[in-house]
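Type II CAAX endopeptidase family protein
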Amino acid sequence: MNKEPEGPGWPEILTGVGTFAVLLIPFGLLLALLPQDRPVLMGVVGSTLGGFLGVGGFAAAFSLRIRALRPFGFTPVGNWWLIIAAGVGIGGYGLSIIIQSAYQTWFGNDDPQVVLHAAARGGALPFIASLLGGALFTPFGEEILFRGVVANALNRYGAWAGVGLSAVIFGLAHGVSVILPVAIMVGVLSAILFRQTGSVWPSVVLHCTYNGANSVASALGFAPVQ
């Protein structure tokens, strides 16, 4: 009887997050080379950025030593958990508005994702493209890395690490701006779901729902953080 591989550990965390950071360089250069007077184009391309970085980081961690999906949380889960995850995503979006308002009151408006809002408002095709990139691909890529690898590995040290520390790492990966506290909040909610279910799929659904609500609100004229 074959023994199932153990879950990810520090080698996978360092490899996955390190690859995520390294990949930021070429993708950042790509965005810098795009016409700065084409915010819609920049927003469409930028909406997929997290997906490529997350998938790249996960692929590096996956290829390191385990090379099986199940230990990374690719396990089935009951439909009720997916429904709960979608509801938590909507609730998280409402909470993000409060966090953003408080941040802007204290520190001013420094939203670095203006181009993402421009893409959401740029017409039907840019909206659909940015929705596919920002509300499907990016949540999937980020969740399989930051929950499937990072939170998964840190869960062995308890909830403070599996939830709290992994959420801080996730937040810092989004930069130090108004996005930071919002990303930490989403990371906490997502990590709690992962810790409860052992599956990345509720976390993916939560993140997709949150980003989707964000994109729709932006298209309707709001300027939420994504």
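thats it. The chain has one domain: 10-219. Residues 10-219 form one domain. bye
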